[in-house]
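Collaboration report, partner site 2.

Our partner group contributed sequences for two proteins of shared interest, and the home lab folded both. The records are reproduced in the order in which they were received, starting with the first partner submission.
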Amino acid sequence: MIDSHCHLADEAFRPDLDAVIARAKEAALERVLIILEGGNSREAEQAARIEASWPEVRVSIGIHPHMAHEFAGDPERARDVVREQILRSSSARAVGEIGLDYHYDHSPRDVQQQVFRAQVRLARELALPVVVHTREADADTIAVLKDEGRGELRGVLHCFTGTPALARAGLELGFHISFAGIVTFPKAVALRETAKVVPDDRLLIETDSPFLAPVPFRGKRNEPMHVRQVVETLAGLHGRSVHTLAAQTTANFHSLFRP
């Protein structure tokens, strides 16, 4: 199995990082994709520590929409920060997470869009996939991916909680759809119905840890080993064995991120 999206470089894991990595390996995780905030030196340092003990891990680097305001007036600087860090990192495999978040609006929407566009252009320049965060911004997110991707962009809509229409739009772009622990929540009935119609070869699994721990760990700190609960839920929805779906999502990860 592969956790295709986790924040293992987050401060929440600093005290017991080695134990978290050991539990992930014991849970048969081949690797994880660690999401790093572009320009965050503490996260970069922790990622290097992880790579030293788990060389198979890979990273994705980007400016989250919550932080887009730091680049107001100069969105191309976000692109430059991310490009420089990606080129320094031998384990970098994607640009992200990037996108739009109109729920919290921590950054002005026009600034979010400018920073998002600049990073999509960077992904095209570097021939890397994008890891996309979108919340209450479906139409604008798809518009940016179409405008700036120009049909050449690969990527994933991560921690998917959107509508069937958003899933279809993502699939039409050739994107993968990744599900996290939310798909296990009792009230996530509509999300599970959407998950059923995503083709097996476009599915990814993730934890988004330390956030969104799946049932039965809900309310606790999440960690990569808990991705098994996600794959078990999706396997049931797709009528596959856990082993089969775990193997399929692993193959999907390799196809997209080319680790």
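Second partner submission, folded after the first:
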Amino acid sequence: MDWENIHSATDYMSRMSTLNRDEYAVAAIRREVLAKNNRALVIYGGQHLLRKNAVPNASDEWARGLVAQLERPGIASVFTIDPETRIPLSASQADITRGRKPSLALLNGTRLGQVRSTAPAQRLVRFEEHFDAVVYLGEPGEMTTANMGRARCDDAEYMQMRMARLSLLKPPTGAPVAALGDLLRRSCEGR
């Protein structure tokens, strides 16, 4: 993204709507991994790994992320693992808590795999349709967060750039802050 031309939330959202951030990853995987008959571990945000389109009445059932771009045309088969920490997985499958943490739970054919992974207003997509497995790290109340490193917090130029970019975004509904920059400030103050 050319941040020099992004001055408002409207600029940011306009650019995001035309940007296919997964194209680069797909091209790199095709060139550096698949063309050389190799395998790779790709670590990406969960939204990029979704297989199915959750838009109601969409003409295409495939999502637009990198997994869908690799699997839909038959280029590759991808094994996806979701590190879910926001929802209590034990509510859907109590025995998930019996193993060690972290542990890997396959989703296909399980109660957890049948759980709806989309919002009620979206097309029904089950957890197993998006992911092959979930890594169980614990229940949401057990999760902790890390603060940003002191070197970044003390870097005035970095902080100015990051705060300017965060000011373009609204926090999600129900977030414990009025602005995303508040989370960054809290992280630095917690050092």
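Feedback sent to the partner group on the second submission included the following. The two ends are 31 Å apart (CA to CA). The beta strands are 81-82, 103-106, 133-136.
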